[in-house]
Design a protein that fits this description.
Blueprint (H helix, E strand, L loop, with lengths): L3 E6 L3 H12 L1 H8 L3 E7 L15 E3 L2 H5 L6 E4 L5 H12 L3 E4 L2 H18 L3 E2 L10 H8 L5 E7 L2 H13 L3 H10 L8 H4 L2 H15 L9 E2 L7 H9 L2 E12 L2 E12 L11 E8 L3 E8 L3 H18 L30 E11 L4 H11 L4 E6 L8 E12 H12 L9 E5 L4
Parallel strand pairs: 1-2, 1-4, 2-3, 4-5, 5-6, 8-10, 10-16
Antiparallel strand pairs: 7-9, 7-11, 9-10, 11-12, 13-15, 13-16, 14-15
Helix pairs in contact: 1-12, 2-12, 4-5, 5-10, 7-8, 13-14
Length: 436
C-alpha cells in the first residue's frame, strides 16, 4: 500500500524527535498503521543548519506554506508553535483537504473551536495528543478510554517547570528566585519564564482537557490563572508539617451551576499519589463516575516524549483516513452538534478549602478576632497552627486551614482580617483540595 506522506512544519526539538521515532520504529509503526508513514518534506527557518537527526530523503523548504498546498502531502504536522502563523497554516491545510497533527496547545486553546469546526466541515481530522502532558496519552484516555463515564473532575500537574521549582523549594528550602535560576541553567525554564511560572502554559492545557472532558468549546479566556511566583519556602514547609504538599494544579470540575476552570497553587494531602510527583514530571488525575479516580503519569515535555504522542496521532490518522468522517472519534469527544453550553463558573463562585497564613502581632485577643470574622462569614475552621515567637520577636505566623467554603466568603474574610490593626502584613491564601 502506498505510504502516507507527511509534511512537517518545524524542525525544532519535537520535529527532530518525530523524525527520529518514525525512523527507529518504522517497522512497528507500519505494522500498527497498516502502511508506512514517511516524512516527505519539512520546513525550517534555517534549512542549512545541522540537526540532531539525519534529514536524508526529506525535502527541505524555508516557507511552510509550500508544504500545506502540496498535492502529494497527506498529513501536515504543525510544530512551529505560536498562534498567528500556525493558525493560518493549519486552516489552509484543512481547506486543502489535508489531515493535521499538532502539539500546539496555545493554538488550540485560543482557536480550537474554529479549527475543529472547519475540519469537520471539510471531512478531515485534527489530532492533538502532544498538546497536553507530552508523551502521556491523556487525550486518548479521556476521549476514548473513559467514554463510558461521566467525567466529574480533572486535576493535573501539567507544567514540568513549575513542578521542578516547587520540588526544589520544598526539598532544599530555597527561595523561588534561586530555584528559578537553577531551572534556567538546567534548561527546564526559558530565559523569559513568565509563560510557565505565571500558569499560562498550564491554562492552555487545562482548556483542552476541559473541552474533551465535558464537551464544551475551548474557553481559554475564562480560565482563572494564578502562578507560583509569590510562593515562599516557608509556606511549603508549613504545608509539609500539616501533611500537605503544594503543587501548581490545573483543575476543572463539573459543579451544580457550571464548570470550574482554574489554575493555581494547591495544597494536596501528601498521601495522594499525585502529591508525590516530583521534578519535571507530569501527572493527570481524572475521576469518572464509573471508574473512580485514575492517574496518568509520565514525561510532560522533551523531544521524544512529545514525539511519541505526535507519531501516535499519525498512526491514528493513517488508520482512519479512509473511514466515513461521521464514524470517526469526534475532536472534542462529543458529537459536534451535541456540545454543551454549560457556563464557566466565575472564581468567586468556586468552593474550596483554604490555607491562610497570617503574620500577627503576638498579643492576646488576635486569634479571637480572626475566628470571629470567620464565624461571621460562615467559614468553618478545620485546624489552627501558631508558631511560637522567637526571642525578641513581637510577631508570629498563624496558619488556618478551612473546610470547603465559597471563594467570595474567603475573599471577604481576608479583607476584614487584613484591616485588623494586629495584622501588619497581607494574608497568604493557598487553596486546598482533598482530591477524593
Amino acid at each position: 500500500m502506498k505510504p502516507i506522506q507527511v509534511g512537517l512544519l518545524g524542525l525544532g526539538t519535537v520535529g527532530s524527535g518525530t523524525i527520529a521515532v518514525l525512523r527507529r520504529n518504522r517497522e512497528e509503526i507500519s505494522r500498527r498503521a497498516g502502511r508506512d508513514i514517511v516524512v516527505k518534506a519539512a520546513s525550517a527557518r534555517d534549512i542549512s543548519r545541522e540537526r540532531a537527526v539525519s534529514l536524508e530523503g526529506i525535502e527541505l523548504v524555508a516557507d511552510p506554506a509550500d508544504i500545506v498546498s502540496r498535492p502529494d502531502i497527506d498529513i501536515v504536522v504543525e510544530l512551529i508553535g505560536g498562534e498567528t502563523a500556525a493558525r493560518e497554516l493549519v486552516l489552509r491545510a484543512i481547506d486543502n483537504g489535508k489531515h493535521v497533527v499538532t502539539a500546539n496547545k496555545a493554538l488550540l486553546a485560543k482557536h480550537g473551536t474554529e479549527i475543529f469546526a472547519r475540519a469537520h466541515a471539510k471531512g478531515v481530522m485534527v489530532a492533538f495528543e502532544g498538546s497536553v502532558a507530552g508523551g502521556i496519552p491523556i487525550i486518548k484516555a479521556i476521549r476514548e478510554g473513559l467514554s463510558a463515564n461521566r467525567i466529574e473532575w480533572i486535576a493535573g500537574i501539567i507544567n514540568g517547570t513549575c513542578n521542578f521549582i516547587l520540588s526544589e523549594m520544598r526539598d532544599k528550602g530555597l527561595p523561588f528566585d534561586m530555584v528559578l535560576a537553577e531551572a534556567q541553567r538546567l534548561g527546564y525554564a526559558e530565559a523569559d519564564p513568565a509563560f510557565d511560572v505565571e500558569g499560562i502554559d498550564a491554562a492552555h492545557k487545562l482548556t483542552i482537557l476541559a473541552a474533551i472532558a465535558f464537551g464544551i468549546p475551548m474557553q481559554f479566556d475564562k480560565v482563572y490563572t494564578e502562578g507560583i511566583t509569590k510562593l515562599t519556602a516557608v509556606d511549603l514547609k508549613y504545608a509539609e508539617g500539616l501533611g500537605y504538599r503544594i503543587k501548581l494544579l490545573g483543575i476543572t470540575r463539573r459543579a451544580k451551576k457550571g464548570i470550574e476552570l482554574r489554575v493555581h497553587p494547591t495544597l494536596i494531602p501528601s498521601r495522594r499519589l499525585i502529591a508525590n510527583v516530583e521534578g519535571v514530571m507530569n501527572a493527570v488525575l481524572v475521576k469518572g463516575d464509573a471508574v473512580g479516580p485514575t492517574l496518568y503519569y509520565g514525561r510532560g515535555a522533551g523531544a521524544e516524549a512529545t514525539a511519541s504522542a505526535v507519531v501516535a496521532d499519525l498512526v491514528d490518522v493513517t488508520r482512519m483516513a479512509t473511514a466515513d468522517p461521521e464514524q470517526r472519534v469526534p475532536h472534542l469527544a462529543f458529537q459536534p452538534d451535541r456540545l454543551s453550553d454549560d457556563p464557566i463558573l466565575p472564581m468567586e463562585e468556586v468552593e474550596t478549602g483554604c490555607y491562610l497564613r497570617l503574620r500577627a502581632l503576638d498579643r492576646p485577643g488576635v486569634l479571637a478576632d480572626v475566628t470571629r470574622i470567620c464565624a461571621d462569614l460562615s467559614i468553618s475552621i478545620d485546624a489552627i497552627f501558631q508558631k511560637e515567637a522567637g526571642e525578641g520577636e513581637d510577631q508570629v505566623d498563624v496558619v488556618i486551614l478551612t473546610h470547603v467554603t465559597p471563594e467570595k466568603q474567603v475573599n471577604a474574610a481576608i479583607r476584614r482580617i487584613e484591616a485588623l490593626p494586629t495584622i501588619p502584613a497581607p494574608v497568604v491564601r493557598i487553596r486546598l483540595e482533598e482530591l477524593l
